[in-house]
Amino acid sequence: MAFANLANKNCQEAIACFKTVLELQSKYLSPNDSNIVRTYNNIGSIYRQLNDYDAALETFTQVTDVEKFVQMNSLEYAKTLNNIGFIYCQQGKLINALHHFQKTLEIQLTFNDIQPEEIAGTYNNIAGIYLRQNKFDLALVNAKKVFEHCPRVHKLLAATYDILAELYSKQNQFDQAINAYSNKIEIMKKTQFINPQELAKTYNNLGMIYNTICNYDMAMKNFEMTLTIEQELFPSNHPTFAITYNNIASVCFAKEDFRKALKYYNKELEIRLLSLDLNCADLMTNYRNLSVVYFKLNKYADAFKMSEMARKTLVEYIPPNDNQLISLYNDLGEMYYLNHKYDIALDNYKQALRIGLKILPADNEELISVYKNIDELYFMSRIIISTDHSSEENCFTSLTYSTIGAIFNEMNNYDKALLYYKNAYHAELKMASPDLDHIETYKNNMNAMKNKTSYFSREKFIQLMYTIYEYLFNAG
């Protein structure tokens, strides 16, 4: 009855039947009967199938109540340890999982009549744990053990090749990774044990590797294979398509086929906007990618529209001082600069710095890229630069220093504002043909900051003296 319910996917009814069996076994069988362990394993396996890992773990560990009666090195007990290891693995408790898999292996290796595939499966599990721990050498050793115990054509090898492929990818050994994924697909076809979703994922992983090594034709071929399989599995608005469309679009962009890239980025956008589980970071990236493609196609109005949509998405869903806004405003500035709208470009660069200088040190690489863009704006009007200035490392134009100073002034950080206004003043003096109006402005800014710093120093001194006086007065 229990197995019949299980075959019909009536899992709760199957659990109830197995629990009834367990009650009868406890009444009529001796405590050392392995059938009791087997029933616990059946119940736990159903909970595991339902992804109810807490209930599964509780059921599997019930076996420990009969450990003193059951032979500790029995294969049924080994299966229980393996099941517990799997649950710990799903919960991310890798050390516990590894311990149980290793205990499973110890028991299995004591039996001469055990199926080699069972031992191979345990080695595969251990290899997977070591991979997740980034212990690549140990993962490789255990993966190779799988091949020693498993027939050359067996469905288990697909999982092992997957482990090897990921292992090689993480070590940038892309040829070996490609070979492993290709072998995985071959095994799946030979054993006719094809999970379409797993096959689609494998083609996608191959595409990602080919894209990484700039073999765009092979990347496109594998992404298109992924898309073909997904179209047979899912409705046209399924969120999975957003990832595949993005991958295809990125390859088209790399091949400078911008019209085709635009087509697939728009397809991606349609899926993301329909998704109930909206990921704002992915949506923002989608808008930014569309913006870049439109810009490449000289469709500037559409490019700016997409950038503005990216900005609105970020502002709506993330904190106002998020790092992503820095690069977004910097990118917007670059686009306006290339479109010769220099004032708007500078406004966006300033906004990038307003956010960045609040959360990052002034010499952060991300901010330095903004400084360099402001330098480009400066050089639009001041082409000639002295030898001294051009040779100094990390030395920026007076406009850049002045902009940073103005932002620190807005933040009431007058000491730093004064420092950068001084840098602006000296940078302008080093120009082959200094702008006297700029120099006068920077001098005025420096004086203003000196007045503010001295004012706040006086205020702090008065406040300190008042605190001391109050303390002495209260002390009598």
UniProtKB/TrEMBL annotation:
What keywords does the record list, in alphabetical order?
Answer: Repeat, TPR repeat
Keyword Coiled coil recorded = no
Q: Does the keyword Ribonucleoprotein apply?
A: no
Superkingdom of this protein's organism = Eukaryota
What Gene3D superfamilies would the database entry show?
Tetratricopeptide repeat domain (1.25.40.10)
TPR repeats, residue ranges: 37-70, 78-111, 158-191, 200-233, 326-359, 398-431
**Protein's UniProt name:** Uncharacterized protein
